[in-house]
Amino acid sequence: MTRTMEKIAPALLIVSVFVVWELFCLMAGISELVLPRPTQIVAALVKYAPAIWPHAWQTFYTTMVGFAFGVAIGLSLGVLIGSSKLAYKTAYPLLVGISSVPKVAVVPIFVLWFGAGTVPAILTAMIICIFPIVVNVATGIATVEPELEDVMRSLKATKMEILRNVGLPRSMPYFFASLKVAITLSFVGSVIAETVASNKGVGNLMMIAASSFNVPLVFAGLMVLAVMGMSLYAIFSVIERRMAGWAMRKEVQ
Amino acid sequence: MKQVPIVELQKVGVTYGQGPDQTEALVPTDLTIAKGDFVALVGPSGCGKSTILKLVSELLEPTSGTILFGGRELGAKPMRVGMAFQSASLLPWMSVRENVMLPLKIVPPFKADFRAKKGGEYRDRVDDLLAQVGLLDFADKSPWQLSGGMMQRANLCRALIHDPDLLLLDEPFGALDQFTREELWQTLQALWLDRGITVMLVTHDLREAAYLASRVCVMSARPGRIIEDRAVPFARPRPIDITFESDFVSLVQDLRGQIVHAPVGRTEDAA
Ligand SMILES: Nc1ncnc2c1ncn2[C@@H]1O[C@H](COP(=O)(O)OP(=O)(O)O)[C@@H](O)[C@H]1O
Ligand SMILES: [Mg+2]
Questions:
Q1: How close A5 gets to chain B, by Cα (Å)?
Q2: Taking every annotated instance into account, which residue ranges of this chain make up the domain ABC transporter (chain B) (predicted)?
Q3: For an interface test with B, which of A145, A148, A150 has the most B Cβ atoms less than 10 Å from its Cβ?
């Protein structure tokens, strides 16, 4: 009884939020130019679906391409930095420095170099997701138990062998945990870049809709983004659980 | 019977760190381990017991002195060692069997075969060892499904699977309850009797040293040195009841006295 309650409660909450929103707008007589009702948003979604679809695809595409590059770079850098104490100590301050720059600030530079459009969106999505991956992978590798490292070294294992047999597998849960954060960041980066400098993508669609006071369409875009963001997060949560189930168990002493 | 030395420390000293942060961990020390020996190293915490194990396993270079292996300088001929620590540090993403197999992926000559045959033929080898320590039924389990004592059994297996010339144990049973610990003493003794291995055991439990070892080396407080090298005469296999016999108890008390009244640091160098 309580078990099923726990399962449906989140969905119930979302539905109630929409119901309250709908009723509130109706009773307070709020104009759709300020805050459209959920039913109006859904109507806009249906009406503009053919127009929204290519934009949603564009946002998805730039997010995934940027994310893929970010994962490749982040994983390699993480392995590099995690495997050497010197590299770890040398590169860490720089990484923290880079990470504290708001990534949005680099969008104009990308536009300057590559022109408005797809490329800045991909690059923003890429650069924004590298840091958490690097840090997680490096931490996973660098925190191998000293005893285990001694056991391996006493077997005359090379650095590569230790990395392959211990460091890398050990860092995988950290890596997959960082992916769900990274994909969300990529998505944010991509939308921001589209909003600022593109003629495609959901961000751009919302900008244009807003400038023509098509408020239901703006909110329809927002809905699309929310659903995409949540789905991406959910997908990578599942991947995380699949790939590193052992890490969810209690740690072995 | 001729004693074949497997390891000889000749005036080996260790100082950690440099400049003002220096810590002298080991005063130049001599120690010879013969093939088939079971040597226990006991002494107060921080006296350099783990340091000696690290020297012998080549994890650490001595600051002074020489280490000979089989009469030759260490490094001349690769020596195979197996190590186990208090924390079992099994890899949680592998089964118990895969954990025990790990050294075979790394240590020659097994390594070459392992690559070629993906380890299939080593399965029996691992299972035999697991059976010997009573873990065969848990071979396919994950480490986190084992009790602390079982983890240490698997840890012992991992340290032995590649037939090391020397088994190095650093307080392997330190985190176990008394009952489990005594069970593991018996397991380790059986392995030693059966396989003719050479063991160096670091422990702070004097009963453990007296029960298991053929020789107990007592160390002084830091900077450490060996102040007593005592043969333990009890016949093998030793039943666990031996720990209540008066000879055993007085040996343990003797060792305790040695440690408590040990002169601190360096007093030798007179000769
Ligand atoms: N890597 C290290 N750097 C500096 N000092 C160390 C290091 N390892 C051990 N020591 C010091 O050397 C002494 C001996 O250490 P250790 O051999 O681990 O002692 P034990 O195992 O007998 O408790 C201790 O005082 C310890 O603080
Ligand atoms: Mg120690």
A1: 31
A2: 7-246
A3: A150
